[in-house]
Structure formats: C-alpha cells, structure tokens
Amino acid sequence: MRLRFTWLVLGAALATAACRDEAVTHARVPKPESSAAPMTLPPELAAPSEKTRGLAWTLPSGWKELPGDGMRLATFVPPGGLKTEATVVALPGDSGGELANANRWRGQIGLPATDEAGMAAARTTLGTKAGPAAIYDFTGTGEVRARLIAAVVNTGGMTWFFKLKGDAAATETARPGFLSIIKGLKADAPR
Question: How many whole angstroms separate alpha carbon 165 and alpha carbon 147?
C-alpha cells in the first residue's frame, strides 16, 4: 500500500511540475522536400481549358488578349498603355456567393465591406447571349484612386468573372471597350 501511495505522490508531483512551465517556445523546422506530384483538381472542379472554354468573346479594336496563367484564363489589355487591365477567371458553382465576391473586390481597392442592400444598389445587369451579366463598379477613395469593374456570368455550372481594374481614370477610359466584351459574350461549343 505504501509503495502505491509513493507512486501516486510522485506522479502528482511530476504532473504539477510539468504544468508550471508556461513558457512558449518557437522553432523553425525546414519543410521537407516533397517528391509528390502537384495537386490537381478533379475534372468537374477544374477551370475550363482552351479547348472547352465555355464562353467566347470578341475584343474591341486595339485590345490585346494575353494567355492566362494560374487561375486566370486570359488577360485583356486595352490600347494606349492605360494603367488598367481586365482578367478572366472561371470557377465552379457560385464561387463563394455574390456578397462575398463584391466585398473582396471592394477590399482590393480599399473600400469597406458592404451589406446585401449596398451590394444590390451597386449591381446593374447587362444582357449577353450567354445569359445575364451582373455588373459591379467600385471606385476607391484613397490617395491613388483605383477603380474596379466586375462582370459575373453564371453558365454551365460555372461562374465567370471578368474584372477590369486599375487607375480610376484609365479604367473609365477602358470601360466602354470592357463592357462591349461583356455584351458580346456567347456560349462557346467545345472545339
């Protein structure tokens, strides 16, 4: 019995001593090199490829299309060396929802988040052959004023984001050409 009591007291003492040390320590551990292949999305979640793009567009005179990279399917550059550019991204489903996307765009140009009513007030709709496009137009209030115009089209289980972003004056100059791209959107059959 006495041996059991001794072990019990010794265990309690060790536990108490271990709990007293409240110091936080930090360590840097190098990331092991991985020989694993990069992660790929299943086909139903992957962005459309060039062969099965899903939407087709026509650029206005003078605009240039650059190849996409990463999540971008394409980048559009307006003529005249303007400090603005348009990007195209397509994601599956509703891609986070309308309010979350509008607030992310607002944050990109230094504006505070808005609510459902503010988002609805900022939205206009533009008809396209691919379906309606929700258009958002936000101008920042910072020292260097940025402007972002986004068009969102839902088609074929994908949400397509067309975004024109840059210097406020340059974006205003490029706005008519950008909106003509959106107006001209149409379904694109697989090639």
Answer: 6
CATH architecture of residue range(s) 54-188: 3-Layer(aba) Sandwich (3.40)
Name the helix (H) or strand (E) containing 72. strand 72-77
Report the sign of the C-alpha dihedral through residues 56, 61, 63, 66, in that order: positive
Q: Report the C-alpha gap between 66 and 78 in whole angstroms.
A: 11
* Mean pLDDT confidence for 64-77: 93
For 121-146, write each residue's pLDDT tens digit. Answer: 999 999 999 999 999 999 998 788 99
Pairing of strands 54-56, 186-188: antiparallel
Question: Is the overall model pTM greater than 0.90, yes or no?
Answer: no
CB 159, CB 94: distance < 8 Å: yes
Q: CA 61, 71, 183, 175 torsion: positive or negative?
A: negative
**Dist CA 166 CA 19 (whole Å):** 55
